């Protein structure tokens, strides 16, 4: 996947390496501004949903959480929200939220410690260990609880600029480059998606994520079957056909026959690539995770038919971790096991085992399950293969015809 991303990244409309190497590149500044705006929009939306339905006191309690009775945290929050104030105002604020008056010495110390007018919303966010835009959003909605999202976003221009100012400083070039690389990867994935869609990928977008990189791209069995069909057909995409012939009003003046017209197919993949993939998929059966299928399919004279495929399984869970990386909670979402395969040059498909929800906790199967199911089906499939070769004797060499040779031989007659 990394090689694919690099391939498409190097073919974007801009020079990614020049942007990374040159801090003064105009496109670098433009991209960083877009990134900062997008990040700010994400956090503002998140914090707006969190506080928009709360009363003034509920906003404070939710924001501070377990520190709601802390004089230090209440003081920092007070000065983050109210700038032109005095010591008396601070005393009233603390008494309101703690339920008791603060002694004069403590009040003076808190006032002098956090009333610095040079502190910005970012500084107060740092002191409170919260995102600066959360500090600003909570304070704004405390004063104007019915403010609409559009109005809030309009008023947020200055705090958004202050919050993002650190990103544009020269000393933070490594943080800039990290964000730029993420942006380049997203553009590469967007460029890659149309190529994947030609191969059967069923969604409009391809998410740049670790899940996609390891193959968990939320694909559908039908799309996987379409892809392995293209590989089995040496890179040609042939139309799916359910109905080959239909007769209407037979024996009457309105007798009509509608019959499927064979389509030669479209070249989707280079033939050399398809054949290389066939060999790779065949190795999975010959000496890999689907080895139990080796030799399961053969012609009537005993010649083994090449089988290829790819296994995949997932124990999909929602996990929570502590600060040391230990798992503190694990909840089963579902369990899947899939085998996508081709048998010779005429059969291909997908077998998937799937258990949804909490029931997945009771199952421990792997991709060996769908492989075993296909093995159990092999006698029936071998019978079907034998029907296609009725005149084969034991001394006759057998070769399964590619689809184009088959069509040429029989004139595209599907009934043959």
Describe it for me?
- This protein is of the alpha+beta class and 416 residues long.
- The chain contains 17 helices and 7 strands.
- The chain has helices at residues 2-9, 16-21, 26-51, 56-64, 71-81, 87-98, 104-114, 121-128, 132-143, 149-155, 157-164, 173-198, 210-213, 221-232, 271-287, 368-388, 403-410, and strands spanning 236-237, 245-248, 256-259, 266-267, 307-321, 327-343, 347-356.
- The relative contact order is 0.08.
- Residues 392-398 and 412-416 have low confidence and may be disordered.
Looking across the biggest beta sheet, what order are the strands in? Answer: 5-6-7
Number of E-type strands: 7
Count up the domains: 3
What's the tally of helices?
Answer: 17
Low-confidence stretches: 392-398, 412-416
Hey, roughly how much beta strand do the residues contain?
Answer: 5-15%
Q: Specify the oligomeric state.
A: single chain
Portion of residues within helices? 40-55%
What structural category do the secondary elements indicate?
alpha+beta
What can be said about the biggest beta sheet? Answer: 3 strands, antiparallel
Q: Give the helices and strands as they follow along the chain.
A: HHHHHHHHHHHHHHEEEEHEEEHH
* Cα Rg: 33 Å
Cα distance spanning the termini: 42 Å
- Overall shape: it is elongated
| Mean pLDDT across every amino acid position | 87
């Amino acid at each position: 996947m990394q090689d694919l991303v690099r391939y498409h990244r190097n073919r974007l409309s801009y020079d990614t390496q020049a942007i990374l190497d040159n801090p003064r590149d105009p496109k670098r500044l433009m991209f960083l501004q877009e990134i900062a705006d997008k990040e700010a929009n994400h956090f503002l939306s998140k914090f707006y949903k969190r506080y928009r339905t709360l009363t003034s006191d509920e906003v404070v309690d939710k924001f501070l959480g377990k520190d709601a009775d802390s004089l230090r945290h209440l003081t920092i929050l007070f000065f983050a929200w109210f700038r032109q104030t005095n010591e008396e105002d601070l005393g009233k604020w603390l008494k309101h939220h703690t339920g008791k008056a603060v002694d004069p010495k403590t009040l003076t110390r808190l006032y002098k410690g956090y009333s610095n007018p040079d502190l910005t919303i970012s500084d107060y966010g740092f002191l409170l260990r919260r995102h600066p835009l959360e500090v600003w959003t909570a304070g704004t909605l405390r004063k104007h609880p019915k403010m609409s999202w559009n109005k809030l976003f309009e008023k947020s221009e200055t705090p958004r600029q202050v919050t993002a100012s650190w990103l544009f400083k020269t000393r933070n070039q490594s943080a800039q480059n990290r964000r730029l690389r993420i942006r380049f990867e997203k553009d590469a994935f967007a460029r890659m998606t149309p190529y994947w869609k030609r191969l059967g990928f069923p969604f409009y977008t391809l998410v740049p994520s670790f899940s996609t990189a390891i193959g968990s791209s939320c694909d559908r069995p039908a799309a996987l079957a379409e892809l392995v069909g293209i590989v089995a057909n040496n890179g040609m995409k042939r139309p799916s056909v359910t109905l080959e012939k239909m007769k209407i009003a037979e024996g009457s003046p309105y007798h009509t026959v509608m019959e499927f017209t064979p389509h030669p197919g479209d070249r989707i993949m280079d033939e050399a690539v398809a054949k290389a993939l066939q060999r790779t998929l065949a190795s999975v059966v010959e000496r890999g995770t689907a080895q139990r299928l080796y030799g399961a399919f053969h012609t009537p004279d005993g010649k083994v038919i090449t089988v290829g495929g790819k296994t995949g399984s997932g124990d999909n869970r929602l996990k929570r971790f502590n600060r040391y990386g230990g798992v503190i909670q694990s909840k089963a979402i579902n369990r899947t096991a899939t085998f996508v395969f081709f048998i010779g040059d005429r059969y291909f498909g997908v077998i998937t085992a799937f258990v949804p929800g909490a029931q997945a906790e009771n199952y421990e199967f792997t991709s060996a399950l769908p492989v075993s199911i296909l093995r159990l089906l092999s006698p029936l499939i071998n019978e079907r293969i034998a029907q296609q070769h009725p005149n084969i004797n034991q001394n006759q060499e057998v070769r399964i015809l590619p689809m184009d040779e088959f069509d040429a031989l029989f004139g595209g007659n599907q009934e043959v």
